[in-house]
Amino acid sequence: MMSKDPRGGAVRCRSVDGSLRRENAESVACADSQTAGSSELHSALLHRPWTSVELMVSSDIACTSAVGLRRSRDTEDTSFDNRLPKDYKDTEKYVQSFRYDLILKAGLDMARNKVEDAFYGSRLRLNGLKLIKKSKTVKVGDTLDFILGEDKEIDSVNLKRVIFKKVIGETRDADKYKVILRTWKNLQLPKNDVYKD
């Protein structure tokens, strides 16, 4: 939280840990440079004249935005698969496109013909729904399941799973994308957690 310092010439920013720190008014940025993540906002603040009221309000927005960014980074990894076992593996892969079959093949290091056999055997799922088209484009956050079988006695499903975590970049000729995929090679989950249709 940013406010006018009664001693003049500075503003005060309450950091994430609750402590107050003083900053020069010209910087109009949150005291903790690691917390300040909104460069566009800070740049806009620095390149125009401000009244004292505008300065206080805009600085408050900048610090609030920065704290929000810090918190979103801290919780980013737990927003995925927080009810799943922790024996996953995150790997960087290069893919030509974001087609379902290419992402699954890359994540599981599986031959393409096995992916095709699973598709025609109705054993592929996207976010819990039966895959209708193996060339369907997937996006960050999507869950791709390769069903291995069912245990009817305990009403569970055995599967391999890939979660599309992140796009890092692309190659210079833009024909391949570098992605991060989170994979489980052997999962057993309740049927209700796997099938959403």
Automatic annotation (TrEMBL):
Q: Which UniProt keywords apply?
A: RNA-binding
Residues in Mitochondrial transcription rescue factor 1 C-terminal domain copies: 89-191
| A GO MF term | RNA binding
**Pfam families registered for this protein in UniProt:** MTRES1_C (PF25818)
InterPro entries for this protein: MTRES1_C (IPR057896)
Q: Which Gene Ontology BP annotations are present?
A: regulation of mitochondrial transcription
What PROSITE patterns does the record tag this protein with?
S4
Spell out the GO cellular component terms annotated for this protein, sorted alphabetically and separated by semicolons: mitochondrion
Question: What protein does this entry describe?
Answer: Mitochondrial transcription rescue factor 1 C-terminal domain-containing protein
